[in-house]
Amino acid sequence: MNLRAYAVLTLSSLAAAAGAQYSLGAATSGSWGSSAPYDAGLFTPFQDLNALSLTEYTTLLHPHFPAHSVRVKQSRFCDGEVQAYSGYIDVGARHLFFAFFESRRDPDQDDVIFWTNGGPGGSSMLGLYNELGPCRVTGPNTTERFEYAWNNHANVFFVDQPIGVGFSYADYGEKISTNAEAGQDIAAFFVIFFEHFTKFKGRPFHMAGESFGGRYIPVFASAVYDRNADLVYAGLTPINLTSVMIGNGDTNSVATMMSYYDVQCGSYGFPKVTSISDCVRMKQFVPRCQKRLKESCVDVLDHIDCLDAWEFCQNSLTEDIFTRRNPYDALRPCLDKPDFESCYPIVGDTTTYLNNRSVQEALGIDPNHGNYTWANWEVNVRLNEDDRWFRAEHHLEALLQRGVKALIYVGDKDWICNWVRFVGNERMTLELEWSGQDAFRSQPLRDWSVDGVVAGRTRSVGSLTFATIRDAGHMAPYDQPVRTLEVVNRWLAGQEL
Ligand SMILES: *[C@@H]1O[C@H](CO)[C@@H](O)[C@H](O)[C@H]1NC(C)=O
Ligand SMILES: *[C@@H]1O[C@H](CO)[C@@H](O)[C@H](O)[C@H]1NC(C)=O
Ligand SMILES: *[C@@H]1O[C@H](CO)[C@@H](O)[C@H](O)[C@H]1NC(C)=O
Ligand SMILES: *[C@@H]1O[C@H](CO)[C@@H](O)[C@H](O)[C@H]1NC(C)=O
């Protein structure tokens, strides 16, 4: 089985044309480096989101980020109820697409959420149109308003990243190679956006993602945090990084792999679908797999040996869940073979919808880059090989130690990035080394409820909350929108589950 079959998928330039408006600080070239003190007198914020054009992009620049600019326009799409915007984060020849919806409640007061899907290589348009955006695709040409959208109580940004994913593109086929670089681009984007639309300055900011997003988000949030020191030094307003929110994350990929025997053959509430003989065979592979992953992926990172060990483990431990059933949801059957599109036919409709030229025109997609696919397999293979091995949980620990909160929520019917105690995401949270670790570990899981009905289990101490979402699979907001939104809204409000 190759990496692709196993992939954890959750899974232009209208502007440059004549007539685009520019809002420049006077100094767009010269000696502005990250350490140069910032002179507010040289910069004019754009200020009024309503003044953005519906048809042309406005380009936003900022002297502190000479390598980055933002193209943005108003867009009428999705439910049409709140103000919506779309555009690109431009970094030289690289262009990351974003969509932004204001809060349905109070855009001037509510928190800001950044969202990315995982994959790697999965488009965040899946999050927007199938999971938590203000509308949902209902067929190849149709959407409808979605009641349980995350912008009910927050301003929400969806970003297609890295380059090559969804509507993001590069002029000459450039590729971004690491999470860290993408993190720098995302950090720069929000500073530029908030400096221009100053009502967002200092607003509580949350970085959220799913699946492989469990590896993106800790790195991106660290980039935002580290960038803040530099902003303060330059006299700019730091981003008020308040929390990270990770859904069905693959934060520690080795731990995820080692959990597969337990979810299939242990007593964690998953259906007993794997035969006794397969379980016995797998059990013999567990210690060998553990040893090989530890030796070549954890203790030292030898890419060749590590990939070899990974393939060995995959072949010996995952065959049943990944080739015979829906690996993303123990409750949801697939149409045909257990690949993402057969398990989630809405993904095909979403792809058709997003390839409709009139839809793309509303979004401001350049016809030259209008071919939309929900997954970029080249990015998938590249990041699976290169970016799967660093310990993203160490970033989480560092964020917790600096007062950034973390919400780890997990749909409890997901096999692929499961919640399971001692092995899956619960173990990841228990093993995080931070000042609250002992208190966190000593607390038992307890039920949490929505309207008197148990909606999952949770444990929370200080800045760290772990929660399962009952009867949700890998895409918890898709499967259990009410429960997932309840977790999110209580989290934003600083309430216990
Ligand atoms: C959707 O658009 C396609 C063309 O791509 C058309 O063939 C089809 O009839 C449309 N379906 C509906 C329900 O409008
Ligand atoms: C950041 O947001 C928190 C609420 O999460 C608020 O209490 C605090 O004052 C904000 N900080 C700044 C510097 O605006
Ligand atoms: C695009 O979508 C519109 C409805 O929004 C529909 O009328 C039209 O048939 C679609 N076009 C194609 C080529 O699918
Ligand atoms: C978009 O897809 C069409 C047909 O599928 C293909 O002919 C065209 O080359 C593609 N364009 C790009 C920019 O990939």
Describe the structure in brief.
With 497 residues, the chain is of the alpha/beta class.
Write up this protein.
This protein has helices at 3-6, 125-132, 179-196, 213-234, 253-258, 260-265, 276-299, 303-317, 319-323, 340-343, 346-354, 357-363, 377-386, 392-401, 425-431, 437-442, 476-479, 481-492; strands at residues 21-23, 58-60, 68-74, 84-91, 94-101, 111-116, 135-139, 142-145, 154-159, 169-170, 204-210, 240-247, 405-411, 446-450, 453-461, 464-469. With 497 residues, it is of the alpha/beta class. It folds into 2 domains: 6-255 and 389-492, Alpha/Beta hydrolase fold, catalytic domain (Rossmann fold, 3-Layer(aba) Sandwich), CATH 3.40.50.1820; 256-386, no CATH class. The strands form 2 sheets. Strands 1, 2, 3, 4, 5, 6, 9, 10, 11, 12, 13, 14, 15 and 16 form a 14-stranded mixed beta sheet that branches. The chain is globular, with a radius of gyration of 22 Å. One 2-acetamido-2-deoxy-beta-D-glucopyranose (NAG) binds next to loops. One of its GO terms (molecular function) is serine-type carboxypeptidase activity. Its EC number is 3.4.16.5.
CATH class of the largest domain: Alpha Beta
Main sheet, how many strands, which sense, barrel? Answer: 14 strands, mixed
Counting DSSP H or I runs of 4 or more residues, the number of helices is 18
The molecules bound to the chains, other than polymers, are: 2-acetamido-2-deoxy-beta-D-glucopyranose
Average residue pLDDT: 87
CATH superfamily of the largest domain: Alpha/Beta hydrolase fold, catalytic domain
Count of DSSP strands: 16
> Might you state the CATH topology name of the largest domain?
Rossmann fold
Radius of gyration: 22 Å
CATH architecture of the largest domain: 3-Layer(aba) Sandwich
What's the overall geometry?
globular
Q: Determine the N-to-C terminus distance.
A: 40 Å
Uncertain stretches: 1-35
The share of residues in helices is 25-40%
Total individual domains: 2
Strand composition percent: 15-25%
- Derived from helix and strand composition plus strand pairing, the structural class reads alpha/beta
GO molecular function: serine-type carboxypeptidase activity
Signal peptide: 1-20
GO biological process, one term: proteolysis
EC number: 3.4.16.5
